[in-house]
Amino acid sequence: MTERPAQRTPNRQLAALIAEAGFSNAGLARRVDQLGLEHGLDLRYDKTSVTRWLRGQQPRGTTPALIAEVFTRRLGRRLSAQDLGLDACAPVYAGLEFAATPEEAVDIVSGLWRKDSGSHAELRKIAFTPAGLVVPSRDWLIGRADERVVRAEAHPARVPAQVRAAPRPTAAADRPGPLVPLPRQRGQAERGPGQRVTAGDIAALRSVGELFRSLDDMYGGGHARQALVRYLEHECEPMLRGTYGEQTGRRLFAAAADLTRLAGWTSYDIAAHGLAQRYFVQALRLAQAAGDRSYGAYVLITMSRQAVYLGHGREAVQLARVAQQGLGGSAAPVVQALLHAAEARGHAVLGEVRACTASLARAERSLEAARPGDEVPPWARCFDEAQLADELGHCHRDLQQYRAAAQHAERSLQLRAPAYARSRLFSRVVLATARLGLGDLDQACRLGAEAAGQAADMRSVRANEYVRDFERRLEPYRDAAPVRTYRDKVAALG
């Protein structure tokens, strides 16, 4: 005797929302498939699939989040999978959304950290989607600032009596009303949710960021990326779910935004492009919660650089322009130079000579206008003559203006400090490519071999890809003696 299938409960929540949105079953299936394509997914749903969902069948994998996003776009309000009567899927699949509130932003990004800190290799295979850049950049540009990020203790009844009886005082500027902070207990090794966040906690986040940034610059994103993500999960998330006043909360979200952008940057460096894109979107949202407009612009520039690397020049230009529009003309000259240089890189990928030249000229004028006493955010201080020369070299290389590319790449190598090992490698490959374009095969191969040796000491897919790009350009000369020597040197590296 065969068993009868378990009786499913019809999904009345989904039925009601389909009626409200005015979808047919086929129309909903089509929209889910289209949204899946934006995320690099080949889905094949049809009206029969929707009928099964309405009868109570639960769609698998990423689909609940995709269905929720379809209704969110249609109805103009944020809806979750649970609102549709569906089981929630892993938060990473919702990582491209720009959260409506700081609380929702913490939920999304902490889910991303937790998933990434484990052995979930599928996260690093998520595809980059250019369409996923549009909504977050728009929402950042036109969205309202968050009025409050303060977090008072939500469950005072759970606080031990001896703690409630002796609350620590807070500074007047940082007091959110009747706040009862939770001090860290003496000898406590790990932070738990609900504890009071201190200035020392935020200083520690900043110091960790500097440490991981140095490791990334010198050895590549693959060396310490997982350690950074675990730190975010085990230290930063409990702080975000802790107790803090308004001023401390803004500083905490700013530090979290910086570390999240860095997690995205290191993911980008190992070619986990879809994952990196999600980190950048969430860093953008955390920067908004921090009230730090300029850092948000920097995140957009980071997203623009990834788009350039992946060959999406039009998106790169748009992101750079959104960053410029969001800051207006009030930014420091160094920041303006950084923004214009990023736009130039997008134009160069597109082969737009005049637009690229104009953006580079604006970048040069802006950097020339910088003065030692200018107030410059920490993230922009590394944009100096060496970095501008690097941007110029890349642009002229992409435009096949090899003499100018060689001049600027050489200048960047002369000025760039040794600690920026990966950036120096990139400039060396640009110089090798320019020398090749100018017909100097011996010099090109010598420079290329030096870069290959440096790449072998790094855990950076980008570094290896720069070398591979140079090797592809060598193919027409594969039988020449300098190229054979180059290949022998590279083979010796193992």
Describe the structure.
InterPro entries: TPR-like_helical_dom_sf. Residues 160-177 have a biased composition (Low complexity). The model is unreliable at 1-6 and 154-188 (pLDDT under 50). Helix 9 (225-240) runs antiparallel to helix 10 (246-269) and helix 16 (385-398) packs parallel to helix 18. 62% of the residues lie in helices and 0% in strands. Among the domains are: 7-89, 434 Repressor (Amino-terminal Domain), CATH 1.10.260; 94-151 and 193-291, no CATH class. It has helices at residues 12-21, 25-38, 47-54, 63-75, 102-117, 134-142, 161-165, 199-219, 225-240, 246-269, 273-290, 293-309, 313-327, 333-350, 353-369, 385-398, 402-415, 421-437, 441-456, 461-474, 481-492. By secondary structure, the chain is mainly α.
Mean pLDDT: 87
Q: What value does the Rg take, in angstroms? A: 25 Å
Give the helix/strand class: mainly alpha
**Terminal residue distance:** 64 Å
Rough outline: globular
| Beta-strand content estimate | under 5%
Q: Tell me the helix content.
A: 55-70%
Order of helices and strands: HHHHHHHHHHHHHHHHHHHHH
Q: How many helical stretches? A: 21
Instruction: Give start-end ranges of low-pLDDT stretches.
Output: 1-6, 154-188
Count of beta strands: 0
Mind summarizing the main beta sheet?
A: none
